[in-house]
Amino acid sequence: MSAALAATGLGRSFGATWALRFCSLQISPGTVTALVGPNGAGKSTLLQLAVGLLRPSEGSITVFGFAPGSSEEALAQVGYLAQDHPLYRGLSVADHLHMGRDMNPMWDQAFARTHIESLGIPLGQRAGSLSGGQQAQLALTLALATRPALLVLDEPVASLDPLARRDFMTTVLTDSADRGTTVILSSHVVSELERVCDHLVVLTAGQVQVDGEIDALLARHRHLVGPPEAARPRVRHVLSEIVTAREVTLVVELDGPVVDPRWTSTAITLEELTLAYLRDPDAGTRSGSLRPVGGTR
Amino acid sequence: MTWTAWRLSRSAAVATVGLVSVSFAYLVWSGQRLRDYFASTGLRDCLAGGHIRQDCSDVAYNFFELTRTMTGGQPVVGFLSLMPGLFGAFIGAPLVARELETGTLRLAWTQSVTRGRWLRTRSLVAGLIVVVGVALMTAGLTYWRWPLDQVDGRVEVNAYDVQGVIPVAYAILAFSLGLAFGAITRRVVPAIAATLGVFFLLRTALETAVRPKLIGPVTLSFTGNPPADLDEKLKGAWLLEERIPRPGTGLPTVYVFQPADRFWPLQLLEAGILLVLSAAVISLAFYWTRRRTH
What we know:
The complex is a heterodimer.
Chain A: E1 5-14, E2 17-27, E3 32-36, H1 43-51, E4 58-63, H2 72-76, E5 78-81, H3 93-103, H4 109-118, H5 132-145, E6 150-153, H6 162-179, E7 182-187, H7 193-196, E8 199-204, E9 207-213, H8 214-220, E10 221-226, E11 235-243, E12 248-254, E13 264-267, H9 270-279, E14 285-286, E15 289-290
Parallel strand pairs in A: 3-7, 3-8, 5-6, 6-7, 9-14
Antiparallel strand pairs in A: 1-2, 1-4, 8-9, 10-12, 10-13, 11-12, 14-15
Helix pairs in contact in A: 4-5, 5-6
Chain B: H1 2-40, H2 43-48, H3 57-68, H4 74-80, H5 83-102, H6 105-108, H7 115-152, H8 157-160, H9 166-185, H10 188-210, E1 218-222, H11 230-234, E2 238-243, E3 253-258, H12 263-291
Antiparallel strand pairs in B: 1-3, 2-3
């Protein structure tokens, strides 16, 4: 089966500035990928390229083998939820579902209605008068009911309170588990992703810095604490280093086991790992192989 | 896609129905009075006897004096004659621009409908509302103007502009301009402003520079006594130029005009030009929307 998403040398410029460049990425079907990066890293640009709202300036991107947005068949592969979950404010919830049915051959009306009702959203209410959480849920329902093979969510929970956040992610994960939907979601809040996602892509300054399976990444990256006089262990590279008089704390990507018993190795959280990479934009790991991404510029 | 296009244009349709209803009510009420004056002053019978306005000048004077006392009358009708431009601009310009402004295009363009089909369906439905609205308005104005047309004919500017196929064709041009400016400026208010500006510029240019020459005008020139059929020829004509020399100079009298029976040929030719222009502008709107990113 072809990749859910494949990008090769993908770039997109706005005027003279590149929002995204030299981006190569493969996302396997059925995975849930977190796209993480600081503001302005090119996350939204990459996602808009994936759903066909933008065209590449250079390189190529395909979604299940289709050029995004190129045909109705290509569009039907993708469900998209934009950052501010846009809705027609003057239209009712029922109108939105009718619209979804009208514009999507694969539309699942039974699911859409049941889901909206289970959330307690009144069908007759105008979208503009729904709460923020309800609007996000309606927009997500519209995206899910098109029965997409790839669901693209741009900062889906940024504007939601913790409860709405949990409900929202539960809906996404249930769908992914039930139907094998591939999900890509962008976020700059890393803390909750560990529970939700199985793949991580870190985007910095328009380039892919980290790309890998979360479990493998967490297994490979460790905190090492040892005395200052101990020889530095052989690792693939050191992401951060804090030296005090008594001890040295490192965040490293391992190359093999650490043999020196003076070093204590502890697990790292996804958030710590992500932050370490974001602080060190020249470090890069791509599916296990060290690649100085900064050097390709 | 048709349902969605209709649903999103529904408020425009409701506004159109409201505006057309109010205008119709006025035009029928006022038109009725115009007809009453036309008959009661005796102008109708005078003209029916094969006479021209000059022959009936006394009763014509009475008739026009009475029309001046009417509520509304020419100013209202003058305002209604701006409708094609206003309709086209106010329905055409927001079509793409409002969705860009509110961000809903990101919802619309990620459904399983290509941008081309989206714009085609949306503009057909909205365009149909414009066409039907302006056609009904034109029918009302034609009814209202009937007595005046008996006096002055239909090729002269005030009559010509609000009748036949021209109003609908101008509305289509304004709508197309609105569509294109909406896609280009991406903001509703600037799009409407640009549309109205360019539309009325084009309309004035076509009216003053192109329309009189669409079909070569007739030139009638004579020295001394006018030919017997002069009045007949000038009846209901659109007089473009009139040169009457001082007596005794020996110079010829010259009339340049579009005869009354050229109403439809002129209308169809001008409508043809407008539709070609509209097609070009619509192509630009489609090109821009497909290529355009937001």
